[in-house]
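Sanity check record (used in CI):
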Amino acid sequence: MSHLAADPPPNGFRTFSILWASQSVSVLGSALSAFAFNIYLAQTVFPLESQKPQLALALSVTALAFTFTAMLGAPLAGVWADRRDRRATMLGCDLISAALALSIGLLLLLWQPSFWSLLPLVALTGLVGSFHISAFDTSYATLVSSAQLPRANGMMQTIQSLSGLASPAIAALIVALPALARKSGQDTWLSGLESGVPLAFLLDAVSFSVAALVLTRLRIPSPAAHAPTETAEKRSILSDIGFGWRYILDRRPLLWLLLTFALVNFVSGPLGIFETLLTKYQLAPDWQARGYSFAPALALLTTLGSVGGVLGGVVISAWGGLKRQRVLGVLVPMILLGAAQLLFGASRSLYLSGAALLLFGLTVPFLNAHSQSIWQGQVPPALQGRVFSVRRLIAQFTGPLSIALASFAAAAFPVGWVVMALAAVLIVFCVGQLFNPALRRVEDQAGLDQEAARRSIRRAVLKQRPRT
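Expected output for MFS transporter:
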């Protein structure tokens, strides 16, 4: 028995497909601005090889500003998603994100702000994004039937990959537009720009606006809207957050699954930072010999990683994933992911690095889709906002830690060594988890519910004991 929603609305998959497509537009816009900002840091703010420590620090701080606020906001965002209209939440977040992207774009276009002055806007973008993700992740399970859910999960896994496939080349072109205009002898406002980075942020603002406009025409169920109002009113925010924690802690196989993802996020969290650094330094002799410059070389690697993600998403969407022992669909791809990262850290060839990232990207939709299917089967839709937000917090709390350590490790050791050491730890751990009996029974719904009931009774008994 599972907790999947049994009665999706009529045309629910059509609504999901429109929602998926429109939100993919905003994800593409965000990928454009993020990629352009990395190029801006590497080529404009810290262009010299002697500035490698400063560049590593800037990349790490930027990633931290986004992920740390997103992580801290996740529990509150989950409670909000279970209490408020999810369509309205996504609409509001898209509009706020559009305003933030517009602000950054205008600052870069009209002034020359310091790197540090942009960080509060980046942090706020991460916080708003956590509310959007909570509403989005808990919405589509109410739109599609249980039979269509694996397909929907596969489509969800392709969002980031599709944006990553298109964004590097588009972002590199946008960044280069002013230089191309000057080279062609044009005397326009475009040729007067130092780079096209501000244009990428302006396009990001447009993409969020498009996503918001589409949401105004959609109807998305919100389980909280059908719950007894007195229950929602009496529950405090802290008690709702505590409920999400208890739900997971009372089901130890779910906790094991989360801790495994926490390690994956620790290992792969700073990969975007390492990718920029490896491309700029370790792979430079190879791409220079092949006639590339930095931006196209980085774009090639990012694109190949996204090609892998798209291929993986297409396969998992068509296949639907494992129907039993889905935890194997999580652990085996994680081992392959670690092997791909090990190869990436060791490589000094641009094309071999691209192949490693393609394999890396290929594994991600498989492990994420199987994990998502497990969670959707274990958590009722009306509780998913609270539980999934705590799930996200536990699984991702190591990401900011590894990003913070990345700049120091990259400054003290060769970046390739750091990447390989992290990958080796992941491979050894995941092989060990194949023999973890607790994790292997994560899909035993009855067993997990019985375990949770025993822990709940134990807590109640302890509370009733007289204190001396």
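The chain has one domain: 12-223+236-462. If this sentence no longer matches the regenerated tokens, the check is flagged for review.
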